[in-house]
Amino acid sequence: MPNDKEMKIIRNKLGREPTRAEEAMFDSMWSEHCSYKSSKHWFKLFSGVTSPRVRLGIGEGAGLVDVGDGQLIGLALESHNHPSAIDPFNGAATGVGGIIRDVISQGCKPIALLDSLRFGDIEQSKHSQYLLDNAVRGISSYGNCVGIPNIGGDIAFDPSYETNCLINVMCIGLINEEDVVRSKAEKEGEILILFGSATGRDGIGGVSFASETLTDESDEDRPAVQIGDPAEEKILIDIIEELISQKLITGMQDLGGGGFTCATSEIVFGGGKGAKINIDKIPLREEGMAPWEIMISESQERMLVVVSPDEVDAVCDILIKYEVNYGIVGEVIGEDRYIAENSKGEVIADLEASFLVDGFPEYHHPYVAPEEFLVLKEITRGDEFFDRFANEIFNSPNLAKKNFVYDQYDKHVQIRTMVESGDNAGILDLGNKKAIGAVLDTNDHQVMLNPREGTIRTVMRNCGKLYASGLEPITVVDCLNFGNPEMKDSYWQFVESIHGLATAIKSYNLPIVGGNVSLYNESESEGKRLRINPTPTVGIVGLTTDNTKITRGKIKQSNSKILIIGSTGEDLGGSEAIRYCEKTLGKITPSLEQDILNAQKNGEKVKQLICEELVLSAKNISRGGLFSSLAKMLFETEKGAKVASHKIPKKEGLNPSLTALFFGETPGRFLLEIKPENENRILELLGEVDHAIIGQTIDNSQLIIDEKEYNLSTLEKQWKEAVEKHMVI
Amino acid sequence: MIAIPRFPATNNENDALRVMKESFKKEAKIIPHFDYETIFDRNIKGIFIPGGFSYGDYLRTGAIAAVSEMMEAIKTRNKEEGTPILGICNGFQILTEAGMLPGTLLKNTSTRFISNWVHLKPENSINPFTHEIKSPLHLPIAHYEGRYYAEEEELTQMREKNQIALLYSTKEGEIVTDANPNGSIANIAGISDEEFTIFGMMPHPERASREALNSADGLLLLKNFLKIVEEK
Question: Helix or strand or coil: residue A423?
Answer without folding.
Answer: coil
